[in-house]
Amino acid sequence: MKLLKWLSVADRFSKIYLDEQLAPFGLNSSQHMYLLKICHHPGILQDALVNSFYVHPSNVVRTVSALEKSGFLTRVPYEKDKRTWRLFPTQKALNIADNVQTACEKAEEILVTGLDDVQCSAFESTLLHIGKQIAEHTGTTRVGDEFDE
């Protein structure tokens, strides 16, 4: 139970920290990965976000809709399949992307304060492993991306 407790604590307080840092930009801790992914991959298919973030499709729809409503992205029907969307960042999103990236890097820095490079690398590898293990155990498989590296 100790592992679950401390994963929960780290997750909860990381989100609180990110919520505070991202609030001035009109974002929250559940939206930052979407914004950064779309800014780095303009025209990405909405369906690709399901694989990227290990979330249910309804979560992607909800977050994409909120980002669109807030003026951070535009949705364009995908030419090959009108049931899905291509997502493009707006200038508003591009203007804050570096600040969002910096806030995320600072949160990660706080999480690993006191760890040397070897410990930090081992910690990241371990989290990746346990995340994929529990996802696989629940029947969820996804394609990795740059957030997994």
Walk me through this protein's architecture.
This protein is mainly alpha-helical and 149 residues long. It has one domain: Arc Repressor Mutant, subunit A (Orthogonal Bundle). It has six helices and three strands. Strands 1-3-2 form a three-stranded antiparallel β-sheet. The model has no long low-confidence stretch (mean pLDDT 92).
Topology:
Blueprint: H1 2-22, H2 32-40, E1 44-45, H3 46-53, H4 57-69, E2 73-78, E3 81-89, H5 91-111, H6 117-137
Antiparallel strand pairs: 1-3, 2-3
Keywords:
3-stranded antiparallel beta sheet, 149 residues, 3 strands, mainly alpha, Arc Repressor Mutant, subunit A, 62% helix
Oligomer: single chain
- Name the poorly predicted regions: none
State which percent range the strand residues make up: 5-15%
The total of beta strands comes to: 3
Question: On the 0-100 scale, what is the average pLDDT?
Answer: 92
What is the CATH superfamily?
Winged helix-like DNA-binding domain superfamily/Winged helix DNA-binding domain
Category from helices, strands and their pairing: mainly alpha
What level of helicity do the residues show? 55-70%
**Overall outline:** globular
What is the CATH class name? Answer: Mainly Alpha
Read across the widest sheet, the strand sequence of neighbours is 1-3-2
Distinct helical segment count: 6
Order of helices and strands: HHEHHEEHH
Question: Roughly how many Å apart are the termini?
Answer: 28 Å
CATH fold name: Arc Repressor Mutant, subunit A
The CATH architecture assignment turns out to be: Orthogonal Bundle
| Structural domains: how many | 1
Sketch the major β-sheet. 3 strands, antiparallel
Radius of gyration: 16 Å
